[in-house]
Structure formats: C-alpha cells, structure tokens
C-alpha cells in the first residue's frame, strides 16, 4: 500500500505524525511525506522520505501583519468561542470569510494545492493521512481516488466549528446561505472533476490521540479512531546531567518552540517566572533554544538553563512541568503521569486544553489575564507540589492514554479503509 502523509510546513504538527509513518513502514507499506520545501530537512531527519511540493507558505508574515493591524487586540476570530450569543450565523460566516480562510487556511494551502494534486495523480497513493488544516490533501486525495483521513494535533476545533456552522445553516429558511468553506474547497475539487462534500473538511476518518477525558465531543459526521500518543520532538541526545537523580523535586520549565520560531516570543517572561521561583526548594530545569539563553539574564541558583532536551526523557524525572499548553507538550508530560502548571498561549487550543486538564484535577493553569504578577505562578506551583491529588489524577490520565491502541495497532484498520476506497 502506498501512503502519503501530507502537512503544511509546520514542524511541531508534522513531528506528531512521524510515529504513524514509522508504523506503516514497519508493516511494509510505502510512505512518503508531502509538504512545502521548508519542511524537507525536518522530514528527512525522521527517516521518512520527503516529497517537496509547491512553494513555502507565508503564514508567519501574514500573522505578523495581522498583529500589527490589530495592535495587540482581540483576534479577528476566536476558534475557542463557546458562548451561544457569540456563535451566531453572522459571526461564523464572517469568521470563515474574513479571518480563517484569507488569513490562515488559504495562506497555508494555496501554495501547495495544485502541485500536491499533481503529485498524487502521479504517485497514486492508496491512502492519504493529512494534518487537519492541510485542506489541499483531501482535494488531492479525491483527485486520485485515494481514501483519506485526518490526524489531529490537538483538540478538534475545526470540526466543532464546522458542526456549529452547518447546524445554523440548516435552520435558515431564507437570506444569505453562502458557505465560504464549501465554495473554496468545491472550486478546487472542480478543477479535477470533483465535487464538494463534507469529507473534504473532516476526512473519511479522524485519528485522535487525545484521551476521552481531555477531548471534545465528536462533531457530527466525524468517524473518530483513537490512537495512543507517541512522543517525538525530533532527533535528540540524552545529556549526562539528566542521568543524575535530583536531590530536590525537579520542575521543568518549557514554554514551547513554536512561540519563538514563529511568533518571536514566549507566553510569559522567562526571567520573571524563574525569579518568582528562585527561593523554592526545587530544581528548575529551563529548556531554552540557544538563542534565548542570553535574554534571560543571570539565572537563580536553583535554575539550570539547558538547550533542547527530549521531554519524554526529562518529564519522568520531574515532580511537575510548567508549560505553555501546547498539545504535544501536554500529552508528552501526561503520558508519564506528571502534573502540569499551564501558562496557556492563545495560538490554537491551549486555553481550552488547559481548562480540560484543570477540570480533571491533573494540573493548574494561570490564564493570561491573571499573569499580572509572577507570584501567581509561584503560588500555583507550591500548591501543586504540596497536594498529592494532582499526581494521582495525572497518573489516572496516563493510564487512560496508555490503554489506547498504538499506531502499529491501527495499521490493519487503515489497510481496510484504503481497500474499501479502491
């Protein structure tokens, strides 16, 4: 079976897909990874074969322009909105038309849409696995007759939004029923003789590594296949210092790489967070990219500033992890039953994922509106280390994650799905 993994060029999103690629290769299937040229070295470093298509997207530049235009105000459209008074037809329609499509989804897809379709028609994959915002992939899969499905990188916000939109549209008896998403994907499918259907927005199936306790309700029409999370953050080496057991509770401070790679900054001032924790009887391990070491000043005595360290090796040695709420970091930590203090970024699903973690009792969160003083972070960490319930609930969720089928166990089902579409 020929399997194409397709993603727009975003390192953290792709790395979460690599373990499934390995599982498919180990079962003897041919696997290629298609993305914009920027991601080629990252793909090749995983041992999978890259197929560069199209041109690099300009999302960082567009996002910077949008931030300057908004001058730091509210985002043009908030995918996290749940209040009924905000989820109106007019609001959602405007969100698709003026924000999600022109400022995000078209930006990351249009530069690869045609070339990806041409590649699929040449290679003829039997199955296409796509990152859930890479809508060029289902269009390409449809053009070559392949089965296709999404592999989520976090909470399924796009499908939830689509479900709200379709429900509101079905209830309208007159007026404007324009569907910008359907118009966009339908026009792209039509170039190759295809028609729009909702499978272009949600796949024939959806692979989801979130445990039941942390995921959203499955959106209407989505066929969910749970798959155990396998932590992978790229090539790494275990540092010597990590082999020495700490003489105090170890706390990892990891505020994400995408924030620095794409947005130029962290969710909270690292130096202020470290200073607030300076006199606690703990060992703080702050993982910072090399270019960020000099920006934090002199670290307190109880802080070890290190470069990239594989979280799946570091987390099991920790009593707690302070992070930005990214799904990969949350799941990598939770897999080892370690409680988390989340300072959520607001790039995608981080605030909502933090809320779900707190409701399960496996951690605490200090939202952006409450981070006026670092002492709030200090108090939250002290509470989490003092109350054993946080470790107990984190261990419960770890057990839930480990009971999910691994990527290799999903391969036979993927084979059946591909055969059904042949």
UniProtKB/TrEMBL annotation:
- Record's Pfam families? EryCIII-like_C (PF06722), EryCIII-like_N (PF21036)
Query: Which GO terms of the molecular function aspect are on file?
Result: hexosyltransferase activity; UDP-glycosyltransferase activity
Q: Record's InterPro entries?
A: EryCIII-like_C, EryCIII-like_N, Glycosyl_450act, Glycosyltransferase_28, UDP_glucos_trans
Erythromycin biosynthesis protein CIII-like N-terminal domain spans which residues? 22-256
Q: Which CDD domains match?
A: GT1_Gtf-like
Q: Which UniProt keywords apply?
A: Antibiotic biosynthesis, Glycosyltransferase, Transferase
Reading the lineage from the top rank, the first entry is Bacteria
Q: Its Gene Ontology biological processes?
A: antibiotic biosynthetic process
Q: Which residues form the Erythromycin biosynthesis protein CIII-like C-terminal domain?
A: 272-417
TM region positions: none
- Alphabetized PANTHER family for the sequence: STEROL 3-BETA-GLUCOSYLTRANSFERASE, STEROL 3-BETA-GLUCOSYLTRANSFERASE UGT80A2
| NCBIfam families per record | glycosyl_450act
Protein family per UniProt = Belongs to the glycosyltransferase 28 family.
Instruction: List the protein's name.
Output: Glycosyltransferase, activator-dependent family
User: Which organism is this entry from?
Assistant: Sinosporangium album
